[in-house]
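Internal tracking record. Fields below are filled automatically when a chain is submitted to the structure queue. Please do not edit lines marked as system-generated. If the sequence contains nonstandard residues, flag them in the REMARKS field before resubmitting.
Queue: standard
Priority: normal
Entity type: single polypeptide chain
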Amino acid sequence: MTTTQVSTTQCYSRNRLILPRLLEFTLLFMASLKTKLAQKLTVERSVPVPNRFLKLCVLVTAGCLTTMTGTVIAPIFPEMMQQLRLEPAWAATLAVSIHEIAIALFTPLMGLLADRVGKLRVMLPGLVCYALFGVAGSMMPNLSALLIDRALLGIASASIAAASIGLLGNLYHGNERTRILGYATSAMTTASITTLFLGGWVGTMHWQFSFYLYALSLPVLVLVTLFLQEEQSGNRPLVSAEQGRQLKAALTNPDIIRLYLTIALSATIMYTVIVYAPIYLKQTLDATPALRGIVLGLRAIGVVLASALIASRFARRWGTYRAIALGFLLMAVTLATIPLLGQLHLIIIMAVGFGVGFGIVVPNTYDGLSHLASPTIQATVLAAGTGVSALGKFLCPLLFSPVREWMGLEQVFYVAAAIALLVAAALGLFPREAETR
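SYSTEM-GENERATED OUTPUT FOLLOWS
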């Protein structure tokens, strides 16, 4: 038996001891908090509302868990593929993105459930399941078990996301809510940078250790239970008849469908970097998991900088659609240069440039949606965009794994760049600015 096999066997043995202990701890902890949670859910509306900023911090922290669902294991993807003997053409990449389809499908369902039974009653079990299924991924023996586990993790992530958005919507209203959602998005993007670094650093010791980071949901569980409460609301329909008509009209609006397609394609193109760049860095530079995490994290830094500093300025100067086209053009250029670069510092520059392009695309796309949707259904239309984004990420391995198998890894970046260039041309030549202003 080789040293690698002995090390892997020892890690699996330790994992089998860790998960039952983690399950026992979480069950005991949930039992001890049951009475406290019941009291919080029945608080009268006359009770003074605790500090909103503290609640906001707790909700954003919970929301950050949803962004780390995929990023935690991205840096250790090549090692996971090798140790589990995953078929490199598509099986391994599907294992990384399967949670996205679960998020896309279950976020609306969890939102409806949260409105019916209470958002905290949905969030707290979701936080427990997030830790359990996340850590359990480190001990899955084959692809089928891994896919099931990652799908269950996606459902847990969907419950956290739906409840967090609902509770945040209860705290803020109108323009203030839009501003706070923008801050929350920036914070969650920043959290994705941190988890990429952490996943790579922890994975340097052993790839399975990165899965233990999913247990961070347990401290969040403590914060949610201690600092969040949910006011009772009267019985009312989830969607009024007028809202239903407006929602149907919005979801059949060609311009909104066009923006949804833009969101899906941007997510698919972005996920080519998350999934295939670590493999490329491993093959060409023999990069460690920590180094791969740094490269992916620098891409996210580009997203944060562009979203905060230049995205709105470009939209004001050239219009929303042309700003989105510029972002896709920058993504196309940086993607096409990745296979041509053999030096780390040049790859880092291109990674930041790709992040800047994506950071221009995303906020302007959602801004276009908000302009096209009436205020009464704006939140629903934007939330649907989140589901479309998750669907686009899931489609990434289905679209690009055949390209990798038949044409090679480098061609994945060229094909993704060609798609981004086509989208840029379509949006730049046919902006339809009248509908987005």
